[in-house]
TrEMBL record:
Residues 23-174 form the PurE domain. This is N5-carboxyaminoimidazole ribonucleotide mutase. HAMAP family: PurE_classI. It catalyses: 5-carboxyamino-1-(5-phospho-D-ribosyl)imidazole + H(+) = 5-amino-1-(5-phospho-D-ribosyl)imidazole-4-carboxylate. Belongs to the AIR carboxylase family. Class I subfamily. The keyword Zinc does not apply. The gene is purE.
Length: 182
């Protein structure tokens, strides 16, 4: 696995100065309890050899951290944000309100309402502040990573090839005929 919390050694040149910047993707989540879901986004990015940084940023418990992250994300060097949250899942929408980077929202499955609350909290954004909302739970986390990869692949031919290979391997892994499990 790559580096969920890396100082990854990304640099850009500002004049003659080499300045540290962030990896292309930020995976943020409202709580440590979201990581078992959001790690599927991380693992998918690992498989595609895309670097990322994972952070806990709660809209409700650490609102100042959220504002600081969202307002600085583009300047820090992030290009796409994947944001996962459960329950009253304001995080993706609040982040989207403070950045023009693409934000993909992952509704984390909640205990009380199995993630339907998370989904509805994330998906019903007012016109003008978009969050690309994925499915509840693991499939949403995986697809958020794949969509983020698609965005980055527009400017990165090597990544476009890795993404096509990933999809081809998935296709190859599907048997044509079912078999008994035992
Ligand atoms: C949300 O509340 C988090 O995104 C998480 O899904 C949910 C529950 O958080 P914990 O009480 O488990 O920390 O903010």
């Amino acid at each position: 696995m790559a580096f969920p919390n890396s100082a990854t050694g990304y640099f850009c040149l500002e004049g003659d100065n080499r300045v540290q910047t962030s990896p292309p993707i930020a995976i943020v989540m409202g709580s440590q309890s979201d990581w078992p879901t959001m790690r599927f986004a991380a693992e998918t990015l690992d498989a595609l050899k895309i670097d990322y940084e994972a952070r806990i940023v709660s809209a409700h418990r650490t609102p100042h951290r959220m504002v600081s992250f969202a307002t600085n994300a583009r300047e820090e060097g992030f290009q796409v944000i994947i944001a996962g949250a459960g329950g009253a899942a304001h995080l993706p929408g609040m982040i989207a309100s403070m950045t023009t980077l693409p934000v993909f929202g992952v509704p984390v499955e909640s205990k009380a309402l199995r993630g339907e609350d998370s989904l509805l909290s994330i998906v019903q954004m007012p016109g003008g502040v978009p969050v690309g909302t994925l499915a509840i739970g693991k499939p949403g986390a995986i697809n958020a990573a794949l969509l983020a990869a698609s965005v980055l692949s527009l400017m990165d031919e090597d990544l476009a090839e890795r993404l096509a290979d990933w999809r081809a391997r998935q296709t190859d892994s599907v048997p044509e005929f079912p078999r008994d499990n035992d």
